[in-house]
Each structure stands twice: as structure tokens, then as C-alpha cells.
Amino acid sequence: MNSTRLGDLLVARGLLTPAQLATALSQQARTGERLGRLLLINGFVTRLHLARTLADLWGHPFVTVDARVLDVAVASRFPLEATMGYRAIPLRDDGRTLTVATAEQPGDALLAALAVVYPGRDIALRVTTEWDIDQGIALAHRRKVVDSSIYGLYYRSQAESAFTVFTLPQYILLVLGTLTLLAALYSYPLQTLLFLNIPVTLFFLAVIVFRTIVGTVGADAETSITITEEMVNALTPAELPVYTVLVPVYKERAVIAKLIASLNALDYPADKLDIIILFEEEDHDTLAAAKAAGPGEAFRFLIIPEGQPQTKPKACNVGLLFARGDYLVIYDAEDRPDPDQLKKALLAFRHGPREMACVQAALNYYNWNENFLTRMFTLEYSFWFDYLLPGLDRLRLPIPLGGTSNHFRTDILRTLGGWDPFNVTEDADLGIRAAMNGYRVGIVNSTTYEEANKHLGNWLRQRSRWIKGYMQTALVYLRSPVDLYRRAGLRQTIGFALLIGGTPLIFLFQPIAVGLTIYWLLTRTQLLAPLFPPILLYISLFNLLIGNMLAIYVNMFAVFKRRLHGLVLYSLLNPLYWLLHSIAAYKALGQLFTRPYHWEKTDHGLSRHS
Amino acid sequence: MASAVTPEVRAPAWVRLLLALAIAVPLVIVAIMMAHDGWLSDTHGAFLHRVRFALDRGRLELLGFEYPPLPFFLLAPWPTTLATIVLGGLAVAGLAWVVIGECTDRRSILPLVLLTAVLWNPIGAQLVVSDFNEAVGLLALYIGWRQYRRWWSTRQTVYGLYTGLWLGLAFYTSPLGLALALLAGAILPVLFPRLQIPPFASQFVLLAFPGVAATATWAYLSYVFVGRVALPFTPWATDAPGLLTILIWTVPYLLISLLALSRRSVTTAGVFLPLALLVAADWIGWHFSLAFAVGLLTLVAIVALPRDLSRLTRALVGAVALTQLVAAWVFIPWPTLAPRDHAARAVADALESAPPRTILLDDRAAESLLKWSPSVAGYLTTRDTGFDLAVSNPERYVRYVLATTTPDGLTLDADRRPPAGFVLEWRWAGYALWRHPDAPSLPVRFDALPDPSILERTP
């Protein structure tokens, strides 16, 4: 198609001014983007007018795709991948003529593909909008979209899916272990408790040493800035690829307008942005609020077909199916990313190794000083994203992705099978899966600000989901530790075990350790002495005193680095905060057996800063 | 740090290592020769016998909670005189390694000359020969101070983290670690006149936290093990050199301080803070040796050395340092063993052959003897659970009673009312060995003593 002809025609019809056309053509010269998209992004023409004009140019009638014109049986015969690739969908077939709607200029390749599925038909072409094609896909391929978004990973690799919570050997091990333990406790209570105390104490020690080393190495990452402002400023629009932004939302009416404003503030050419907001089918309120917020043409709204489990990763998988970008990022509804984050992530990919599948931006909170919980949450995130993850990155250890601001190479993400909808920390799982498949996950020096939970109940729901997800991920990859070791190597396996396996275990054991300490302090009883022979006692004391001290100290620096000076002393309260984690951990453990896929929804928009 | 105008040039690691070892090895050789001649400082002896007690009884708490514990932990894997020397040598080599880095940064050999001049003499050698703990403390303090300077020059928080960790480590060798951290925190507003309260307060907390937390940790441990709160502030040194003595042996430091002050920078005034710290520490009772004081102030001088000194001035400073080196050789004697040490060693060797827990001893008054004991297995002491029982009825529980003369120990009873059923073997310098008639004698090698009459053999 000739851009000038399209532009001239639009001007001739009074749908576009000559000045607007000149602006768009100038942009096209800089970016190489198609004129039609530039006109849409700039808001110079409507999607409908553009499609109708294109229909006239291409010499085919215009059609609006809906249930009245689309025969689901006909349309669903054309493979979903082909429908997506050609942006064309068959509407009706009377045995001789096949009516097909397309949003792209039809070519021989499309006709050939149609001839394979519908042989001997004459093709009657119709022109429609991109949105109509998506609508047609939703109607015709609903079952397939739902299936692939839920079971895609499971069909591709059962071993990597959390659909099966416990495998048979794991069940047997669990039952036998429990029975043996109970029998031993009955027969030899003291010896059994001592025997249990040894691995627990050593495990605590290993986790403390591991986290201190990783945290300190991560702190040192400050000395080497990865992506500078100069590098960002040197990027030209023409070299920027299309970037998909996926935002799954559910009952986010309160924050959706601010989300759209934050995404509009991204420093990235709108014509290279493919922002997809993913709505659950039942969530009419959020959809209505989003429409009312007046998003630009860079936005697409996708309705996620209903189907269990109704989780964020399932929505993301649907989004991945429709993503047009070479790169893709996930944001949550309440996110406020640094405006230049996409560019920084892009540069991180370019400067990273070829096997870099994902880069994670730091997360932090804009409502850090709202109450005790938000302060402690900010302390935790500052350590996690500013020290721990960079440390893991430097030490080449597997990085569990944080909930949002994960930037992917779209093709690699598809190769990996997308997100696991049965894993309630699908992000952490995906980071580990990438590492286990030989890909790298990196860190980029950019921050997304989120809303910290300020209500304890809300916090417990969110935290229990995270811990349950870690448990699921650990169970998935420890189904065959030997295979894990073979695929990932010793260092990665140990890193995985201590971080993903260790985090829930530490929180589960912690109340017992604290309880014993308090009991001893109050009573100075000798009853516990047999459980703590000298060496074990010294290690326990090291864990209690030095371990806590180091964790608190490194945490102090993490918030100091963020210039959150008021939080430095709050770090001393971390042991109390960790006890809250333990409550969440026991809740998570219960749910692992009763409701493994249940997604504990976190309410957003509660902060006064929202 | 490299200067802004000159690229950073670092000597290859192996060159730095060789140079650092070249500084440390002569001191190690001297220390080994002295140990071969029988020298063991009271401080090293105290470290060793405490570690041996803890290891022999399998209870780390026997190390005690009144002293900074790092030397114990360092010696635990290898509690020998040679280990103290090796550790001292490594600490000195570490100091030299860091100072060599300073030399390459400044493109001047002067820092290394200053360090060598202060180490290669009877004063500096004490850091290896007599108290490796002070050498380790100096190393930690020096690195901590350098990291601190890097922190406020680059504003990168990771250097603050390193500062705190190194000063925290220094605290485990000496309470001066905590003092220096507090000092470093307190002078922040001097370094940053426009520093506001929140960042100042948080930086102060960050610097002080490791030392304070370590103090609290140790206090808690003492409460757990001995039921009372003890703080590790007791210094190993029994006294400290006077201010005049310190100044006499730190002329290069004084000279460099004056040169630094002549630059009229407010931050250079900090060069006198460590001196004030030493004076205050001594006043509080946190004693230190002359070697520590001279070493600390020399390191401060190295850091404060102005970068724009003329060649002549640098030569002058170097000459002063070398003069001081020579003066130390002339005026400071090498330590030698006292006659009582010879006797104590002979006695300790003799008692070594006693079966486990058969010698009743009040260890609180027997430091000079225990220092020489290759093993503490034979002793039943106040640190053992059966001690009180054995005191009440020695004949039943032990074969020997080694009495001492302090008024509050076991000795008083043993001296005035000899343990029933025991016979006196010998007396020496307040000690008296009582033997059960059924137990064999523990023969002392009187021939090894310079003056055998020091030990009074009883018939």
C-alpha cells in the first residue's frame, strides 16, 4: 500500500488535515512505522474511518465482525496461529465461497493458507479493524484460547507444571516420612527431637550465610551502573522495537485510571507500544472504568474467557497469545514504573548475553511511610530488589522474578511456555524455569513503584500466596533433584534450594525457634539442654544473634541507599515482621493441601497515596 | 581511589603479595626465633590457655565474656604459639597489602616506608611477637577507615556497609572499634557541613550499629552461659603508654599532621582524632600497647599524607621515619623471659603428665602458670563443674592440689590448713604443690632452670 495514497484519500474525505498528514509522514520517516498506525496513535483518525478508507483503497467491502456475521464452526477451522499471524478470520462458508475478514492488506500467502484449510473455495475478502479481528478470535477460538492459556505449559512439559501438586513419589515420601517421624517421636522422643534439630539448625545457618553473601555481593553491584542516562538518551525512535505491555487487572476500578496515566507517561514512542489490558470476563466495573479513562490508541483491551483457575498467569498467557511486541513487560494495576524503564530494559537486553530471557526492574513502594506494615514491606523490598536480586545476578544464580516489571524477549517467553497458571507465584517459577532451561535472567537499574499493603489481612493474603507459590515451585523442581542438578549444575541447584526451598522452611521453623528461646529466657529450664549439645547450641546462637544482626544491618543499608532515612531504625523491628511471615507460611502450608491453585486476591487502591 | 586526573595504576597482585610478604616475613622470622628461645608473651599465653580450656572441655563459653573474642576464634583451629605468630604475620602482611595499594594510588613509596619504619623495630615487632590481636585490630580499623573515606568521597552506600562491617570486626579485637565507629559517625557533620539531621542520624546509626549489636550479642551470650551480663570491654593490655611516650615514637605522624593542617582543610583536623581517641581510651581503661598506638597513628598519617608534597618534603618525612626506626632499635629492648617464666614453664611441663582432672587448681590466680601449659587436661579448675566438690573433699576427688597465694582463692585454705591426706611436694613463687601419697611424683626438671633455687623442694 502506498502511504501517500492512504493519506491523500483521508485528506480528500475530510477525515485528516494536510498538517496532520505532514506530521505523520514526518514521524514515519523517523520511525519506519506504518502510516495507518501513526495516524491512530496520534488520534488523527478513528479506527473505523481508517479501516473503511483502507477497504476502499484495497477494493473490498468493509465489515464489522460480530456473532451475527461470524460462523464459529467455519472460523475455528482456520488455525488460531494463522488467524493471529495474518490478522484475518474466515466468517462464512457456503461451500463455494469463503468470506474472510482481514485487518491487513491481503496477499498470496493468506490466500494459500486459506486454500489449504478450505480447498476449492472462492475467497470473498472483507476489510475490518484490528479490534474486530481480536473480537472474532475471542468468539471463534474461545475454547482453544482458554485451553492453551491454562494447559499450554502442562501439555508442553508436565514436569515443569504445578498442576500436579505432589507427585506419587513425593506423596509416598511425605506419608512415610510423617509416619516414621511420629513413630520415632513416640519411641525415642528426645533423640528424635535432637535428630530433627540438627538439620534445621544447619539449614538456618546455610540460609543465613547464603543470604549474607548474596546481599553483600548485591550491595557491591552499586559500584557498576549498568544502564546510564546517556545510553538511554542515545536511543533513536527508529531503532526501538514494538514493546508489549501486559497489565492483568481484576476488580481494580479504583486504580485503573491512574494505571492508564502511568502507562501513558512511559517514555517510549506510542506507535511502538502495544499495551494490552487484560480484563476478566465478569469484571464489568473495571472495564467500564478503563473505557471511561479514555486510553489512547496504543491500548488494547482483552477480555479473558472464563475458566478455572482464574489466575493472573492465565490472563497473562492470553495476553502473550495476542502480543505483537518483540519485547514484553508485565505490570500490575497499581504500578508506577520509571518512565524510561522500557528503554533501559531494552538496553539491558542489548548489552546482555544472547541467552538473556528476561530482565527484572526493581520494585519499591510509593506509600512507604503510611504505617508499620508499609514501612516493613518497603524495608523488605529494598533489600530484595536492590541487594538480593543483584547479588543473585552477579553470582549467576537463579533469580525468582518479582510480581511485576519483568521484561521478556517475547519469542523466548513463548519458547518457555509462558506462565504456569497453576502456580500462584508464576513469576518466581518462570524465572527459575528460564534458568533451568539455560536462559539468563538479569537485573536493570530502574524502579517500579507500587502500593504496599497497609492492612494486615490483605498483607497476609498476599504473603501466604507468595509463600505457597514458593512451596509449589520447590515441589515442582525437586521432583527430581538429580535431573535438576544435571540441568542446572551444582551452584544453581544449591541457590535454588536455599532461596526457593529455604524461604518457606525458614518461616515455618522460625516460630518454633523463637518460642524455645522465649521459653528458656522465662524459665531457664534445663529441659532443653539435651536438644542442644554444645556445637548445636553455638550454631543456634550464631543463627539467632549474628544471623539476625547481619540481616538487620544489610537491610538498614538497603533503605539508606533508597534515601529512606526514616526507615533505618525500623530495620530493628524486622524480627517481628518475620513472625508475620511465619503466620502467612502456616496459612500457605494449609492451602497447599486444600486449595493449591487458589489465588488470594490482593486489594489495591487502599493507600491514601493511590 | 584513583585521582580524577590520573588513571588508576595498580601493581599486579603477585607483586603486591610478594611485597606484603616481604614486609611481614622478617617479623615472623624474628618471632619464631624468639619463640624458639622460649619467649611467649603474657597476652598470647592468655589467649592460648583459654582456647585450650574451651577446646579440652568442649565448651566455648569457657573463653570468658569479658574480653574481645576474636583472638580466641582465630586460634581455635590451631592453638599454638606458632599460630599466634602466623596470624600476626598475616595481619601485618594485610596491612602492608593495603598500604601498597595506597602507594600505587599516590605513585609514591613513602607510605610503605612509613609502615616499614614502624614495623621493623622492637616496637612494631610486638604486633607479631607479643599481641597478634592488636595487629588484626589495626588491620580492621585501617580498612574500615579507608572504606569510610571512600564512602564519603563516592557517596556509594556499599562502602558504608563495608565500613560498618570492618569496624564491627575491629570491635571483636578491641573496644576501640566501637569507639572509632562512634567517632566516625560523630564527625560526619564536619565532613558534610550541610548534612541534614535525617541522613546524619541514619549514617550515625549505620556506623555504630555493628559495635553496639556486637556488645549486646556478647552481653546476651554471657547471660545465657553464666547468668550475668558481661561486656567485652576488658583490654588485654594491663596498662597503656603515656601520651609523651606515644608522641616521642610517632614523630612522622606529628610531622605529617602539621603538613596536613597547613592545607587549611577542615577535614584534615580529623588527623588528631585518633590521638584523642587513644588518650580517651586509656582514660576509660581500654588499654593498648605502644605498638598499637604507634601503628594506629602511623596508619592515620599515611591516609592524611598530603598528595602535593614536594620531593624534598617527602624525603624529609622518610628520613624522620628511618631515624625513628634506628632510634627504636637503640632505645627499645627486645622482650626477654623473666626467671619466674622459666620456672613456670618447668612446672607446667611437669604437671602435663598428670591424668585428666587430677590437679585441683584455682585458675583465677594461676595465669602465669597456665600460660605455659601445653594442655589443660590435668587440671580441675573453677571452670569445671566438680571444682567446689573437690575443694570440699580433695582427698576423694583429686590426686594433687596446686595451691596459690591469693587471699581469695583456694590457696589460703591450702596454705594455712594443708589438705588432709596430702603431702607437700614443692613451693615456688607462691605456688605449692600438694600430692596424695598414693599419687606419683610429678618431677620438675630443675636442671632446665637458670636458677634452680627458685623452686623450693621439700623433703
Outline:
The complex is a heterodimer of chains A (610) and B (459). With 610 residues, chain A is α/β, with parallel strands linked by helices. Chain A has 24 helices and eleven strands.
Task: Give an overview in words.
The complex is a heterodimer of chains A (610) and B (459). Chain A contains 24 helices and eleven strands. Chain A is α/β, with parallel strands linked by helices. An eight-stranded mixed beta sheet of chain A has the order 6-5-4-7-10-9-11-8, sandwiched between helices. A three-stranded mixed beta sheet of chain A has the order 1-2-3. In chain A, helix 11 packs parallel to helix 23, helix 20 crosses helix 22 (490-523) and helix 20 (456-477) crosses helix 24 (574-594). Chain B is mainly alpha-helical. Chain B has helices at residues 13-36, 42-57, 70-75, 81-106, 110-119, 126-129, 132-154, 157-171, 176-186, 188-191, 197-226, 243-248, 251-261, 273-284, 290-304, 311-331, 339-351, 367-370, 387-392, 394-397, 410-416; strands at 359-361, 379-380, 400-403, 423-428, 431-435, 456-457. A six-stranded mixed beta sheet of chain B has the order 2-1-3-5-4-6. In chain B, helix 7 runs parallel beside helix 15 (290-304) and helix 9 runs antiparallel to helix 11. Chain B is elongated and about 80 Å long. The relative contact order of chain B is 0.10.
List keywords for this structure.
heterodimer, A: 610 residues, alpha/beta, GMP Synthetase, Chain A, domain 3, three-stranded mixed β-sheet, 24 helices, 56% helix, elongated, B: 459 residues, mainly alpha, 2 domains, six-stranded mixed β-sheet, disordered N terminus
Topology readout:
The complex is a heterodimer of chains A (610) and B (459).
Chain A: H1 3-12, H2 18-31, H3 35-41, H4 47-58, H5 72-75, H6 80-86, E1 88-93, E2 97-102, H7 108-117, E3 122-127, H8 130-140, H9 142-156, H10 168-187, H11 189-220, H12 229-233, E4 243-249, H13 256-264, E5 273-280, H14 284-292, E6 299-304, H15 312-322, E7 327-330, E8 336-337, H16 341-351, E9 356-365, H17 372-394, E10 406-409, H18 410-416, H19 426-436, E11 440-450, H20 456-477, H21 481-488, H22 490-523, H23 534-561, H24 574-594
Parallel strand pairs in A: 2-3, 4-5, 4-7, 5-6, 9-11
Antiparallel strand pairs in A: 1-2, 7-10, 8-11, 9-10
Chain B: H1 13-36, H2 42-57, H3 70-75, H4 81-106, H5 110-119, H6 126-129, H7 132-154, H8 157-171, H9 176-186, H10 188-191, H11 197-226, H12 243-248, H13 251-261, H14 273-284, H15 290-304, H16 311-331, H17 339-351, E1 359-361, H18 367-370, E2 379-380, H19 387-392, H20 394-397, E3 400-403, H21 410-416, E4 423-428, E5 431-435, E6 456-457
Parallel strand pairs in B: 1-2, 1-3
Antiparallel strand pairs in B: 3-5, 4-5, 4-6
Helix pairs in contact in B: 1-4, 4-5, 4-7, 5-15, 5-16, 7-8, 7-15, 8-9, 8-11, 9-11, 9-14, 13-15, 13-16
